[in-house]
Specification:
The complex is a heterodimer of chains A (114) and B (115). Chain A has no helices and twelve strands. With 114 residues, chain A is mostly beta strands. Chain B has no helices and eleven strands. The chains are: A mainly beta (114), B mainly beta (115). Chains A and B meet through strand 5 and strand 6 of A and strand 5, strand 9 and strand 10 of B.
Chain lengths: 114, 115
């Protein structure tokens, strides 16, 4: 079946530091990959996506590249801000069995300090 | 921006009571999802609908949970009778169509506490 593995949190960084949150996946078929972000007290918001191998998704300074050979979709940002503090979820959908159910990782909490 | 609207935002009730959570999907979205989020289990998919028909409710305890879409603008999730282990944040999400590339748009959730 499908699964997503994320690095354990919390990740604590100083403002302007470089961010990497690792994500690897197992999937049947040809999955699409997503990063969602959840701010305190809110629902999940789509941050970026990639739908095929070697695609790079980007948004708000965040980037992730779909690596089929390593089954990875690591999230990166060159310079984090305090406002980036949130929980980040890696997820995939696979067009097998019908529907577009999301399989989520467990989430990685990011704390950015001044 | 169009948003998924969930009500109530918070609900505290005693065990054994019926709980109804409501969701208004984004206008034009034909797929609706219900999730439960807890610290222990993370995000779990309970059920989802396309064009108001249930596609998959295998994640939902059938004996006490029920999900319906009375019309295209309203989805409901009911728990009867409620138990303390049902305490969680329940999210609704909607999407434009069934297909792997369409993102899901989430509401802000209903925080449920069963005493």
């Amino acid at each position: 079946g499908n699964s997503v593995t994320q690095m354990e949190g919390p990740v604590t960084l100083s403002e302007e530091a470089f961010l990497t949150i690792n994500c690897t996946y197992t999937a049947t078929g040809y999955p699409s990959l997503f990063w969602y972000v959840q701010y305190p007290g809110e629902g999940l918001q789509l941050l970026l996506k990639a739908t095929k191998a070697d695609d790079k998704g980007s948004n708000k300074g965040f980037e992730a590249t779909y690596r089929k050979e390593t089954t990875s979709f690591h999230l990166e940002k060159g310079s984090v801000q305090v406002s980036d503090s949130a929980v980040y979820f890696c997820a995939l959908t696979s067009n097998t069995g019908g529907g577009n159910k999301l399989t989520f990782g467990t989430g990685t909490q990011l704390k950015v300090e001044l | 921006d169009a948003r998924v609207t969930q009500t109530p935002r918070h609900k505290v009730t005693e065990m054994g009571q019926e709980v109804t959570m409501r969701c208004q999907p984004i206008l034009g979205h034909n797929t609706v999802f219900w999730y439960r989020q807890t610290m222990m289990q993370g995000l779990e998919l309970l059920a989802y609908f396309r064009n108001r028909a249930p596609l998959d409710d295998s994640g939902m305890p059938k004996d006490r949970f029920s999900a319906e879409m009375p019309d295209a603008t309203l989805a409901t999730l009911k728990i009867q009778p409620s138990e303390p282990r049902d305490s969680a944040v329940y999210f609704c999400a909607s999407a434009t169509s069934v297909g792997p590339n369409q993102p899901q748009h989430f509401g802000d959730g209903t925080r449920l506490s069963i005493l």
